[in-house]
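ARCHIVE CARD
SHELF: 3
SLOT: left
DATA:
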Amino acid sequence: MGGVTFVHNRYWVVRHGKSIPNEMGLVVSSMENGKLEQYKLTPEGINQAKLAGESFLKVLKEDNIPLENVRICYSPFSRTTHTAQVVASVLDISFEGPQCMVLDDLRERFFGPSYELKSHDKYPDIWALDEKDPFMQPEGGESVADVVSRLTNALINMESQFRGCTVLVVSHGDPLQIFQTILNAAKDYDGSCESDLALRIQAVKIPCVLSQHRKFALQTGELRSVV
């Protein structure tokens, strides 16, 4: 078992707080729409983000982790940016400073034009497809495997920039399910390429692993330790 020595940081995830699209029951997954201010957090979502920040701060204090060792990496969508701002405020970390970093590769999974701005009741159809074949794209959208590719880039980016940090990844439901799936599988991988992070993830990027991402579902505003 490789343990957690394959990464140089500790990773936590938080799904954005309840957003206006959540309240409206809308799929907002394109970068163009996702960045619009009209799709930020609801008052309930702001409160969820505050609670997540307070829970994270409690963990940091219990584990004697200094705030200067904390990094917040977030998706550029308005709902995740809003969440990251609230959490940074709770932690008393400057959102404009070097400890907070936006990463495009943490953006929402694009479900395709046939789902965009439509009812979120369609999500189960996509997840059924994922379970059957996680390499299959919803029409014009991203497959689970596509999301793995860019999350691998995000992880390599974070690993190259930070050492010995506690990193909070602020993203969306599907990307965070997939992020947890690949990190959990990579953690247990003990093949010949275990020292190379990208190769390690590539080795576990297989249908029987990726099809199970729904097991790692998060509620809005939910905080979770990954590795």
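SLOT: right
DATA:
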Amino acid sequence: MKNKISAVVAASGIGARTRLDIPKQFYEIDGVPILAYTVRTLCEIKKINEIIVAVPEEYLLYTSDFVKKLGLSKVSKIIPGGETRQKTVLKCLCEVDGNADFVLIHDGARPFVDKEDILNCIADAEKFGASAVGARCADTLKKSDFDGFITETVDRENVYRIYTPQIFKKNLILNAHENADKNAVNVTDDCALIEKYGTKVKITETERNNLKITTRDDIMYAEAVLKWE
């Protein structure tokens, strides 16, 4: 039987490190906001049934306008985000279709996500219950003390940079988020919650660029790549 998959796009951050006058996800490249590039890619995945987008409250109308203008028809709901990314994701999970089997969680500021990586991640989630796109770390990694001096070289053999999307059985991720909220558990990504509650997450390995736009340099890179596409 075909699984129903809902996608959640977390796009309610303010993006202070880009030093822009607006949140980075609403910066326009060729007249199209970065967030729209991200959502458009998800819309093109046939296995995704609906998309829920969380944005700052003051950008609800703007988001609704470009969703209609660009024909992003799989967007079923646009909601205000929470105080943190974690709270934003929980709010989105509470809005997901009750019949959904899996939830795909993606950062709104990752417009370069590859469709093949998404499909591979979905396949891994359907097989293992939880998956996340990641790339092996090519750089040498060091640990430091509080004064910034190297204390240790980290073996990078099994070290990955974890991206989004991250995909989970709906009840698994919803229960993990609800428990974390109830017990004031804070983590940096959704995989960490799943790990904390004892479930293994399969890494969907990629060699493709899946940059999360964070700095002004990232904006310049995005302009070059997205205009070229």
